[in-house]
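Input.
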Amino acid sequence: MKQLFNNLFGSGESESISYNDFQKWLDNALSKQVPENVIAFNFNLYEDLNKIWSVELVGTENFNLEDEDWACYEVSDFDTRNNPLKWKNDIHYKKVPETVIPFIKRYLEEGNYSSVLKAAEGVGIGFVSGDIEIVYKR
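Output.
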C-alpha cells in the first residue's frame, strides 16, 4: 500500500506533511537554474480529491503588494507543476496555508537554497483562486 501511495503522491504515506518532505522537495526545485526574469515566487496550493493537498512553486516576473494578480505572471521556465508536493490530511482548507507557512519561514532561515528565495522581491502563498499571503518581502 505504501508503494502505491508513493507512486501516486510522491511524498510517502502520511497523514500530514513534514518539514523534511517539504525541504527535500524545495531543495530539488531551487537547485535548478532560476531564470533571470523571475523576480518573485509563489507557493500555489490546491485541494485534490479525498483530502489530498498539493503545493507547487512558481517563479513570477511581477511582484506588486497592491495587486494579488502578480502571481499570475508565471515564468514558464520555472515551476514545479509536474512535480508538486502532495500529502493527505483531513483538515479544513483554511488550515492548509497554516500548515505550510511555518515550513516556508523555516526554509527561509535554514534551507539549503534560502538565498534563492531571499534574492527575490517577495515570496507568497495561497490557493490559486484565493488570496495570497506574503511570507517574505525584500
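DSSP finds four helices and six strands in the chain.
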